[in-house]
Structures are given as C-alpha cells and as structure tokens.
Amino acid sequence: MTELDPYEVGRSSDRAFWADAVADAIEARDPDEPIVIKGGVSPSGVPHLGHVNEIMRGYFVAAVLRERGHEVRQVFTSDDRDRLRKLPRRLADLDGNVVGLGEVDAGALGRNLGKPYTDIPDPFGCCDSYGAHFTEILRQDAERLDVPIEFVSNTDRYESGEFDDAIEHVLANQDRAREVLGQYQAKVDEDYVPFQAQCSECGHLTEEITDVDLEAGEIEYVCADVEAGEETIEGCGHEGTASLREGKLPWRFEWPAQWDVLGVDFEPFGKDHAEGSWPSGVDIARNVFDIEPPVPMVYEWFTLDGEALSSSSGNIVTVEEVLELLEPEVLRYFFLKDPTTARDFSIEDLDQLVDEFDRFERLYFGEIETGDDRAGELATQEGELAARAYPMLVGEVQPERIRIPYTFAAVLGMTDDADLREEIARREGHIPEDAPEWAVENALARVERAREWARRTDNEFNYELKRESIPSVEFDAATTSALEDVADVVEEGGNGEEVQAEIYEAADRHGVAVADLFAAGYRLFFDLEEGPKLGPFLAKLDRAFVVDRLRQER
Ligand SMILES: [Zn+2]
Ligand SMILES: [Zn+2]
C-alpha cells in the first residue's frame, strides 16, 4: 500500500475541487460500499466554527462520491467517554446563548473533573449529560447546514459491547501494543496497559491497571492521580475490578479501533492530530489491528477576527450565531475553500465573504465572466470550481434567486419599515420587476442578517436612518448652501473620498465650521450629533435619497 501524506491528499492533483482529489484517493483503495467517511470531536465545551471542519469537509467528499454513484455513509463520533480535563471558560445552552461559567453551578461541574463527559450532569439540565448536551449542539449545527450525517456516541458503543473485540485484541497483544506506541510516547514503559478503567467509587478514569484477566473479562485497577496539563486530577485510591465495558481504550488506540469497528475509509483532521495521533495511528492500525488506516486529510485551522479559535479561552463563534449573519449556503461556501490554507473568519469584514459567494454564484450562472480581474490560470480554475461545486452549496439550483449586495442590505437594515426596504431595493435595481415572490422574500431576509451584523460589530450601519421624513431642523443660509454643494457632488456620482473632501471644502467656501457642517449632516440623516464617517457612508446609500435629503426636499 502506498503511503499517503495527509498534507498532500486533496492537494497533489490537477482537480479544480479538492474534494474530487480526495475522492480519487478513496476510489484508488477500491473500498467496499457504503464508503464510510468519519469526523469526530470530544464534547468538551461549546462547539465552534473550527469543529464544523469535522462535518463539512467530509460532507463535500461524500457529495462528490455520491455523484460518482457510490453509496456513502457519513458518521460523526462524539468521543464522549473521554474525561473532562479542564473547565471551559464559556458554555452555551441549546438556544445558542453563550454564557460564562458563572451562569451555571461551576463548583458542581468542577467536582466532575476526571470523569467521562457522559457521566457528568448537563449544567443546563436539558440533556442526559454534559457530553450529550454539547454533542446535541453539533448535531443541530449539522442539521442547520443540511448535512446528512449519523451521530455515534463512543460511550454507547462501549456499553453495547461493540468495542469488546478491539479491546480484547489490544489487551491480548499488549507487548506488541507497547512496542508500537512506545516509539511515539515516552511514557509507555513495561507497566503500561492500553486501557483506562472507570473507578466504581468515584467515577474517574484511571490509567493504573494492575492485572488483566481476559478469560474472566476482568481488569484490576487502582484509582490513581491523573496529570491533566499543569493540573493533577486526584484519584480516590480505590482498588477495584472493572469489566471490558467499564472503561475505554486510550485515544491512541481508540482512534484506530474506531476505524476498524466502523470501517472508516476517509477521515479529515486538524494539524494537531497530524503531528501526534495520526503517525502512531497508522502504525497501530497496521501492526496491532492489522487493518489499513483510512485516507487522511489535514485541514488548516481558522482564526476568528485574527485570533485563534479556542473553546477553553472563550474566543469562539457558534454556527447558530454565524447563521444569524449570513445564509447557510455562504457558510458552506467558506468550507468549500481549500482546506490546506489557514483562513481568518472575519466577522468585522463579513461583507467580503458574502460578496465572494455572490460572485461565485454568478460565475456558476454565467452572469459574469472569469478572468476580468484575475490572472488567466486562476480564473479558469475558479470557473471550473464554480461549475463543479456550486450545486453542492444549495439545496436546489435556482437561476431566479436574488441577492441584494450585503452592504446595501445593511443600508436597508437602517430602516425598520419592511415595505420601504423593498421599495428602495426595487428602485435601486436590486429586485427585478418580474421576480417571483419567494425570491424577493429570500433576498429581503438578508437585510435582517446584515442588520444583525451591524448590531454585532457596531459598525457604520448600526444607526437608524431617518428615511420616512426629514427631522425637524433649521439651518442658517450658509449651512444650507454648503449642504447643497455636497448634494451636487453626490449627484455627480462622487465616491466616498470625494464626498468627504467636499464637506471640508464646502464648509470652508461658505464660512461654516467643519464640525458644524458634519453635525448638520448627522442631524439630517440620523437626527443625532454624531455618526459614521459621513462621506463614505453617504456614498453607500441610494443616491437620489441622499441628494434630496441634503437639499432638505424630503
Ligand atoms: Zn442540555
Ligand atoms: Zn476513584
């Protein structure tokens, strides 16, 4: 079997879409049907955008394989028998509200360190356990993104005995297991036993196994301390006996055991695994379990507005929050991009991502040409990618769909009147005469999302624009004339910088203090003394309205 480099799969081919290259590598193994694609995480805390890699990357590969006529099963393992090692800073309820630890009984939660996630009460009280709660959020995320994926609980698998054979096999071949893992982990010595037993007294998982009797199916243990990062989780010292189902395999063996039990053909993972458990997993799969490891693929991590995403530090954004800001197909598009490139998910600059998606969509429908603003080869690839992958982003390909540009949707969001929003969108040419009703409705739904974006980032669109009627203001003759000069520049199509410059020049020309002219502008548009940088902002509004308002006509 040729060795696959997880950094190269999906990359080393002339395919326009990385998922096609991955599918080629899977087909080359001549897999049994259904082809099994896996992802998975420990439900340690609030699932964030980075975790969605474990769902969406596999989704595109599954979609490609299905299109090629294969039967595919996409599974997600919740590695929920892992132990809680550390309390996260933030939690989230099932409605997507992210809260600090102070909102729940953190003391009670802290007493559960060292126990499997499925043996810890749900801090919100709505699910069977802590593990079930955070797995449920991910399951809902998959549903929101319309990904058909089967969730599998590791704890369930252990309890039902599906891991029995794998555990017995590893314990019957302990010498080989130690020899193989010992090449990767210094802690593996002659006393190391590849099993963690759950203490019948305190519920902690312990690594101190004193005897294994496979005939009787019994494992003797001492409930010992466990190192968790810088901290030590204390064991109770109890000496007891566990069955094969009362505990778990250590992760380095559990992962290959999952491949074996589930028959996994492809699994994407982050680069932490690429350095650690993947190389040992390949070795353990072949030399302990006697199976071939799946086709691997490393994905790069995301940052969130330039900072590392991290559940423990609390720098997170959830899928639910993101979907308040953009359509599911736009988020799916984010995951369609090359997984081997590190990317920033910028909420601040979210308009750029949405614009990029809109462009991708228009490319697919042939409404714009590639290459007009990009170098030849890149443009061809982009066109090929759109033709190939766009249908996988949307439930149904609909040429009549309408997209209001995101920043203009944010402008429309500055007024609450739904009819007025539609009227302006129509007047500005963003909604065609004969548009079907469903398309208009979907287009205007973006206005609410852009409104939420403005609120969340408190950007230049987070103001209420006084569109319906002119605020009651009285200006002196000089100010009125200066405002009219600015109106002329807007009417001539001046850009943001030009309008901004004209505000300074008109003030100077008419002997009005610059600050007063700006204040007059804010008064006219927001009935406030202050607002966003006025020139660039006015240039983003519909021109006729701005001109009339500056002339105090409406
Ligand atoms: Zn719950
Ligand atoms: Zn104990």
Describe it.
- The protein is an alpha/beta fold.
- Among the domains are: about 1-195 and about 250-305, HUPs (Rossmann fold, 3-Layer(aba) Sandwich), CATH 3.40.50; about 405-455; about 475-550, Arc Repressor Mutant, subunit A, CATH 1.10.10.
- Helices cover about 45% and strands about 15% of the residues.
- The strands form seven sheets. A three-stranded parallel β-sheet has the order 1-2-5. Strands 7-6-13 form a three-stranded antiparallel β-sheet, with no helix packed on it.
- Strand 16 (about 300-305) and strand 17 form a beta hairpin.
- Helix 15 (about 405-410) packs across helix 17 (about 435-455).
- The longest helix is centred in the C-terminal third of the chain and has 21 residues, at about 435-455.
- The radius of gyration is 29 Å and the shape is elongated.
- The N and C termini lie far apart (about 75 Å).
- The structure holds zinc ion (2 copies).
Q: What are the key terms here?
A:
three-stranded antiparallel beta sheet, Rossmann fold, alpha/beta, single chain, three-stranded parallel beta sheet, elongated, binds zinc ion, Arc Repressor Mutant, subunit A, 18 strands
pLDDT < 50 runs, ≥5 residues: none
What is the helix tally? Answer: 22
Shape estimate: elongated
Tell me, rounded to a whole number, the average pLDDT: 94
Rounded radius of gyration (Å)? 29 Å
CATH class of the domain at 1-194 and 249-303: Alpha Beta
Q: How far from one another are the termini?
A: 75 Å
Give the bound compounds: zinc ion
The CATH topology of the domain at 1-194 and 249-303 turns out to be Rossmann fold
**Overall SS class:** alpha/beta
Just name the CATH architecture of the domain at 1-194 and 249-303. Answer: 3-Layer(aba) Sandwich
What's the name of the CATH homologous superfamily of the domain at 1-194 and 249-303?
HUPs
InterPro entries: aa-tRNA-synth_I_codon-bd_sub2 (IPR020751), aa-tRNA-synth_I_CS (IPR001412), aa_tRNA-synth_I_cd-bd_sf (IPR008925), Lys-tRNA-ligase (IPR002904), Lys-tRNA-ligase_SC_fold (IPR042078), Rossmann-like_a/b/a_fold (IPR014729)
Catalytic activity: tRNA(Lys) + L-lysine + ATP = L-lysyl-tRNA(Lys) + AMP + diphosphate
Keywords: Aminoacyl-tRNA synthetase, ATP-binding, Cytoplasm, Ligase, Nucleotide-binding, Protein biosynthesis
Organism: Halapricum desulfuricans
